[in-house]
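In this notation, each integer encodes one residue's backbone shape. One such record reads:

___
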Amino acid sequence: MDTADGRRRIDELSDDALTGRFRVWQRRGGHRYSLDDVVTAWEAVAARPDATRYLDLGCGVGSVLLMVAYKLPGAQCVGVEAQPLSIELARRNVARNGVAGRAVLDLGDLRDRAQMDGLTVDYGPFDLVTGTPPYQRAGASTPSPDPQRRYARVELRGGVEAYVEAAAAALAPGGALVVCADARTPERALGAARACGLRPLRRRDVIPRAGVKGPLFTVWTFEKPRRDERAAGPEATPLVEEPFVARTASGDRSEAYLALRAFFDLPPVAAPGRDDASGDDDAEPGDGSPARAVTTGVRRKKP
């Protein structure tokens, strides 16, 4: 493949099922939504099913934000993303799915405290915050030459600690943070939460295949204690640990995986003849079809 053909491949968009009614455009050669996004959205909805103010940190092309918006139709949704290309796709995806009237997408770095404080004043504090940070340490591997994939996978703008710190400042008392992190280093997420005054409620290790591979990542649920609960300390509520196994030892989709698809109103398997959105059957429950052009969403102030 020559350079021009390769560039066209990278810039080409696919049109992929996200839920029963929502779809997303994402770059075929760029960062694509995967199982960590889906499990994070699932856990978030379960953690705060009555949330009315919701923030997604590092929202990318809008996959987690849109899945949560699909299940919480009464929630005002705010997304923050540092990559111009990703947030432009997120704005298109929000508009095409009819969510622009209750979604705010800001270009910016979640580590910028002034910007985050401004969003919290305008639209928060938030009942629910989500984040799917990268968890490859900078310098530990050769980064992708594609900037969208590079920043989504390598901690060039901070890792789980930066996400937990931003979330803790934006959460309302009693609010929940649902965040994905490296399963090999649980102490990072737990230490960051403890330092920010959040207490762990739930740990879900995600295992690609039973008996074959260990956990691929962990989705944590943390809570910001209410004022009258702070004296009880972080261990006041027992930590619930329940793994999610995507495939059985024989390679079949697990009951839990099928239930996850059903939760977002997707069929048990992708439609015949359509490309899988991520190219990794363990990582993506959506399907794909050719992309079309749309208009972008706009920012509006809190009512």
User: Anything to note?
Assistant: Residues 29-200+214-242 form a domain with the Rossmann fold fold (CATH 3.40.50.150). The two ends are 52 Å apart (CA to CA). The longest strand covers residues 171-181. Residues 35-47 form the longest helix (13 residues).
